[in-house]
Amino acid sequence: MTGGLLALTFDDGPDPEITPQLLDILEQYHVPATFFLLGCRITSETTPILQRAVMLGCEMCNHSYSHPYLTVLTPRQITQEVSSATQRIILTTGQTPRFFRPPYLAVREDMFPLISMPFIGGYGVRDYDESVSESERYSGVMRIAKDGRIILLHDFAENTKTVGAVKRLVPDLLARGFRFVTVSQLFQEKGVTPSNEDRIIYSYPGQTAMYAPDAT
Description:
Order of helices and strands: EHEHEHHEEHEHEHE
Mean pLDDT: 97
CATH class: Alpha Beta
CATH architecture: Alpha-Beta Barrel
Largest sheet: 6 strands, parallel
Distance between the termini: 18 Å
Oligomer: single chain
Radius of gyration: 16 Å
Shape: globular
Helix content: 25-40%
Structural class: alpha/beta
Strand content: 5-15%
Number of strands: 8
């Protein structure tokens, strides 16, 4: 067994079909995840799903309101995208987002002082691409899973291949000795206090460059 801590994260939800399927898996194995939410997808239909996620110990974070390229927006538009999403998250879940994941992981220098939350990246397997099979998603995460890493997946509409991959991943990673934690728990247990003032898009605690090196 290898073991260590992993933060499983999902972008672009909540989705009324996909997100509950992922929550079923998390509940079955008693593990949390962190959801980077789009404000525009928090509706009366998806609010109960998010409330269930909170009850299961999951963390709610900010992925903007409508998933634009923030790098082409004005400072005021950037602030509005982030604040609108934060307001919806607080209203529906009672959680104040602690972290922000930029859409497309695209940033420019003035975004850091505009957005008070630390920026979070992650190690992904291109599960946003329909051509990537369920098996490739599974094997990709199994390969990149190492202590302290943030795993970046997606729970947008019809992303059933990721659901299938996660259904296999969670028990197999647990069998390897990994423990799943939220992003907040990951930083806390690693003794790292992230800050957006450091201009880092964290894919693991202790990162010192803006972007993490490619997964090996």
